[in-house]
Design goal:
Length: 281
Amino acid sequence: MPFELLFGFPIDRLAFMGSQKIYSNAPLALTVVELRHTTAPPLTEAELLTLKKQLSEVFPLARPAAAGLNVTVDSGVPAAQQLFNPRFMTRDNTAAVTYRQDAIVVETTAYKRRSALRELLRQAVDARQSVAKADGITRLGLRYINEVRADIENSGDWTRWISPALTSVSGLHINDDSLTQAWQGLVVFGDQQNGVVLRHGNLDGYAVAPDGDLRRVTVPPGPFYLLDLDSFWEPADENPTLDWSNIEPHYDAAALSAYGLFEQLITNEYREEVLREHHEH
């Protein structure tokens, strides 16, 4: 099935469907935009200083992100060496931009709306390109990690809040007293160029640790239903230049695809009893 018909209507109509719902009690724990590009040389110290200045208004805190790398020393014995990717964070520690040699990554635990996250990505791209240009785009991915929490007593109660398309397995059993306790699944929509990868299942605790680098709203640990959506675009025949005009339309299409799928994954009862909504303009 063509991806543009994935949700029952052409993808370009998604942008003209009117306002989208914004949930005051949204289950989003973390949103990540990863813009991959062809590998670039490491940024120099002078370039990093300029980059920090470019980002200082929104991301004033320089807090490099650790990335492990295994290297071999002269003795031939593998040793662990700690490398750091340049990373800049907001003062409230709810958003960050990280620059890898092959990607620009924007993360937030305080997602508000598609346009706000798009603006953070634009600023991150503009800053990177003004300091030392990266070349071609290889992938754009938007990941939405949702921890759906609601009143349940056993795993079968998820059918009240989550679409039967995902929870129908809860009705299976091996005998009269042994119903399904837990399940996890992976669903891939679309094709290699445009798609959404959905990871889901009933879990316990947290999908996004509350004590991580990014501060998030702390909720009591307990059962939750994971809806982890990775909506992506990959160029088909060539790697377009890392220009905003080549990024923005694919960002919007990927974000709206994830939104359309999420709306199919929750029930009306969950919307009415757990979420409070208003509309994005």
